[in-house]
Specification:
about 140 residues, alpha+beta, Steroid_delta5-4_isomerase, NTF2-like_dom_sf, single chain, Nuclear Transport Factor 2, Chain: A, seven-stranded mixed beta sheet, DUF4440
């Protein structure tokens, strides 16, 4: 079934699936052969592994978390391919061992359209940190 969405809709769809803790909707964001590198450097190949990795954390440490994704910076590299960069703020809740806190990441996603559907082919998520200390920082906070 052809989708009316475009690459610019991926961050909002990602946010909505995360915030609903809906792993079926999360899985529909990715092509079957997609790859995903999480913010800790874990690499998953294939939508089943991507979903399984996220299902574990959504059933535990991120069960009460939310994401807020910014609008993407889009580089179209063809009529059926684009590169997205977008900021993502994770707000962890009480379920996280560190308790409530926030983490900013920058996401790089390569998205492609196949059979009318825009989905993620490859995604990498990098935590924003102070380069001098390695401590996580929020993007709107001044570096110490």
């Amino acid at each position: 079934m052809a989708s009316e969405t475009g690459p610019e809709d991926i961050p909002a769809r990602f946010e909505a699936a995360w915030n609903a803790h809906d792993m079926e909707a999360f899985g529909r964001l990715f092509h079957a052969d997609a790859s995903f590198v999480n913010r800790f450097g874990t690499y998953w190949r294939g939508v089943d592994r991507i979903v399984a990795g996220h299902a574990r954390i959504h059933a535990s440490v991120y069960s009460d978390s939310t994401l807020a994704n910014a609008a993407p910076d889009i580089d179209r590299i063809g009529k059926d391919a684009a590169i997205l960069h977008f900021w993502s703020r994770l707000s962890a809740g009480q379920a996280h061992p560190e308790g409530p806190h926030q983490v900013d990441t920058i996401i790089l996603a390569v998205v492609t359209r196949r059979e009318g559907e825009w989905r993620i082919q490859a995604l990498e998520n990098v935590t924003l940190v102070n380069p001098m200390t390695g401590a996580p920082v929020l993007r709107d906070a001044p570096l110490p």
